[in-house]
Task: inverse folding
């Protein structure tokens, strides 16, 4: 990831956000700080989530959590530290993760006899516990989710997209049959696609990862992949089928209905705050963030527009009354009564991407109306502002929020379809990948050597795969194609 080392030491004092179209990485950093989503932490490579940034995470978590529970999962919590001997038990898994593990070697002033890993993910702890909890087929399926922080020792970092410590959820399940585990993996992939598309308003491609992009220790890894405005893909959620690999390594055995001793079939699946990074990049514009209403910590901000003491009292009271009515409907509302000019507040809330601004002035009060201003439309674009009777605000706002949600998704879907390119020509294939033209959709042979060659030539790799037409040739190498693949450079 192209980040400058100095960003790790010093948080920029952002006065103006550079245009998104001119410099996406600069725009991204600036908007993260200026919209008060994050601050740089005193420790290298970590960020502090400020209340507005945490509000986004709370919304994302709430939307995921309700879906996890609706599909039968329960939340639990496991320790941050993992004994080294435990981590070493699943060979492929440990080899995949050890390069980025942070270790605790001392505690209470003494050198520990066994190093403790800070979890990069929790398979090994949770599988160890599953082995204790599962004895009979009656104990299955075991459907657990954990909300947690993890640490991966990254060299280069960027808010939400890559940080040493990050927030995520990890689901872990054990099943009595392979079929049931396979169904679970796809069910949770669907949940991720639903949240990406219907909450974050980001269209994604769901499919299976190639052999070289698979999660360490998994038989099959599936992902959802979104496309960023610079033509790079972003993996926004993964779901893994482990077969019996982990249950053999960690001893998850159960007596089946036929009384034979069997190994359970396990899965895991995760989505992190990267999804917030994707939301920022996909929807933002030159004026700042545009948060999709369903993900927005504040759906509407009410700004009183009044001059002098005599006007402001009545207007302020009207704003608070309206806010109370909307909050009773469950709306997330902020009244901005700070001592700043209305113009200053308009800029501030536009930059922070609040979907709707509600303006109330003394003349509006007399006329019984308010002005609704939508953030998704361009400045002074037709339909950006509407005047509505004050008692119609609850229903008009609800409809407007839905419209904004749909509009943001439609814009992102247009971008994705406009930047998904099929080609049968090898030269063009390599050129499109080097130019980061988007998701390049081709028949592919599925061979790791072929993918490695493409990567060496273009820095792009497969994002995910799906069943393809038979009898085609791999566009990258000319061998027989086995699948249809999206290739792209990635975050
Ligand atoms: Zn090939």
Result:
């Amino acid at each position: 990831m192209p980040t400058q080392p100095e960003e790790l030491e010093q948080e920029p004092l952002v006065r103006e956000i550079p245009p998104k179209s001119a410099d996406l990485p600069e725009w991204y950093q600036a908007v993260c700080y200026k919209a008060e989503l994050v601050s740089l932490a005193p420790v290298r490579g970590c960020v502090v989530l400020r209340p507005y940034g945490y509000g986004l995470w709370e919304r994302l978590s709430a939307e995921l959590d309700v879906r996890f529970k609706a599909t039968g999962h329960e939340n639990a919590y496991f320790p941050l530290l993992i004994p080294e001997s435990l981590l070493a038990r699943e060979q492929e898994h440990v080899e995949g993760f050890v390069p980025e593990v942070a270790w605790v070697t001392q505690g209470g002033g003494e050198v520990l006899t066994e190093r403790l890993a800070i979890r990069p993910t929790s398979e090994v702890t949770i599988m160890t516990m599953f082995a204790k909890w599962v004895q009979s087929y009656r104990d299955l399926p075991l459907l657990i989710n954990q909300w947690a922080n993890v640490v991966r020792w990254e060299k280069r970092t960027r808010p939400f997209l890559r940080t040493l410590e990050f927030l995520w959820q990890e689901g872990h399940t054990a099943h009595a049959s392979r079929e049931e585990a396979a169904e679970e993996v796809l069910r949770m992939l669907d949940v991720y696609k639903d949240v990406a598309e219907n909450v974050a308003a980001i269209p994604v491609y769901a499919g299976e990862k190639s052999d070289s992009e698979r999660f360490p220790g998994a038989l099959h890894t599936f992902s959802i992949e979104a496309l960023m405005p610079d033509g790079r893909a972003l993996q926004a959620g993964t779901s893994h089928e482990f077969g019996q690999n982990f249950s053999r390594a960690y001893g998850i055995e159960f007596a089946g209905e036929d009384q034979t001793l069997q190994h359970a079939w396990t899965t895991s699946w995760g989505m992190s705050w990267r999804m917030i990074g994707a939301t920022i990049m996909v929807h933002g514009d030159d004026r700042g963030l545009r948060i999709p209403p369903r993900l927005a910590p504040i759906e509407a901000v009410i700004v009183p527009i009044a001059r002098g003491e005599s006007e402001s009292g009545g207007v302020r009271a009207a704003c608070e009354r309206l806010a109370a009515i909307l909050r009773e409907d469950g709306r997330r509302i902020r009244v901005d009564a700070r001592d700043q000019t209305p113009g200053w507040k308009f800029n501030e809330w536009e930059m922070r991407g609040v979907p709707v601004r509600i303006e109330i002035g003394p003349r509006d009060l007399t006329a019984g109306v308010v002005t609704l201003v939508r953030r998704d439309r361009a400045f002074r674009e037709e339909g950006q502002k509407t005047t509505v009777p004050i008692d119609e605000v609850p229903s008009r706002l609800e409809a407007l929020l839905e419209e904004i949600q749909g509009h943001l998704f439609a814009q992102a879907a247009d971008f994705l379809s406009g930047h998904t390119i099929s080609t049968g020509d090898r030269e063009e294939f390599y050129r499109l990948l080097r130019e980061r033209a988007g998701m390049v959709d081709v028949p592919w042979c599925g061979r790791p050597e072929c993918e490695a060659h493409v990567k060496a030539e273009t820095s792009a790799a497969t994002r995910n795969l799906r069943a393809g037409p038979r009898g085609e040739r791999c566009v990258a190498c000319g061998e027989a194609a086995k699948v249809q693949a999206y290739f792209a450079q990635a975050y």
User: Anything to note?
Assistant: DSSP finds 15 helices and 23 strands in the chain. The two ends are 7 Å apart (CA to CA). The chain has a mean pLDDT of 94. The pocket of zinc ion is lined by residues 444-445, 447, 450, 474, 476-477, 479 (CB under 6 Å).
